[in-house]
Amino acid sequence: MPLLAQHEKEGEESKNPAIGDPKAIDAGGKLFAGGCAACHGADGQGGRGPNLRMRVFWHAVDPPTIFKAVQKGVGAGMPASNLPEDQAWQVVAFVVSMTSPAIETTVNGDVENGRAVFSGKGGCTGCHSINNQGGKMGPDLSNIASVKPALAIRDAILDPDGDGADGYHAVSVTLRNGKSLKGVARNRSNYSLQLQDRQGNLHLINMADVAEMTLGKGSPMPKDYGSKLSTKEVDDLVAYLAKQSLRPFVPSKK
Ligand code: HEC
Ligand code: HEC
To answer: Which of 128, 103, 124, 100 has its CA nearest to residue 114?
Structure first.
């Protein structure tokens, strides 16, 4: 898997002690807010400058490159910062923590409480499985922490439509025989529909049998977690999901 190779490479290059150090990341976060956020967005989501968080998906987040960008600037659009070297590395540490898979970063929150919210108040197990426990309508989250940064996990919870919810559209159909079905549309053409229900059953439906169909826009995930859950509950959920990895994380040697 290319991702793995990327992280091995990153491990080798992450020689600066600031990388992965919670104190440096904290300090870097403040410097980022002051000196980078105006162009790259408060959470690195982009603005006048490019989105720094999506980068993990298309090329390696490589600390030396970020360091160089901070020290020297990039092209005409990004001026060099005047930060001393140690502070520049703190900013790099922050950007890396923002873009690295959650399992490789420190995420504040109460993991045990997050687990409780996941299966209790949040109702997440209705649609998501972790280690084969839970519903099948949404993606399995057993390995979410090794593929998504913590901030992206938070976005998925608070803004489910944000990243397009690729391949998942809520759908409900009523068949000509009166039966109705609800779930997500996995594959759809003018002639047939593959509908996956909450139990994970796949129904192949001939469109000729459909009396009525409502196709939701975007993600079938509830859109009200931002108001339904407290900030602390969301933090705890993210902390819990940030531990769900099938591949154990081996910290790089300094
Ligand atoms: C005045 C706006 C501005 C500020 C301030 C700014 N950037 Fe940028 N940044 C940009 C633009 C525009 C680009 C894209 C430049 C290009 O590709 O020509 C960029 C590119 C980058 C890149 C990509 C480098 C690469 O090789 O792909 C990184 C990393 C980066 N910025 C980090 C930072 C950090 C960290 C800070 C704060 C110390 C910061 N930037 C401050 C506008 C800014
Ligand atoms: C009604 C079903 C449903 C419920 C309830 C639900 N989800 Fe989802 N979730 C989905 C579906 C479908 C997707 C895939 C589409 C998308 O990305 O929005 C998804 C996507 C996600 C993703 C992104 C997964 C990835 O691989 O990128 C995360 C993280 C997530 N959900 C977490 C949660 C958490 C935490 C809760 C509870 C607070 C929850 N979900 C509740 C259906 C649900």
So the answer is: 124
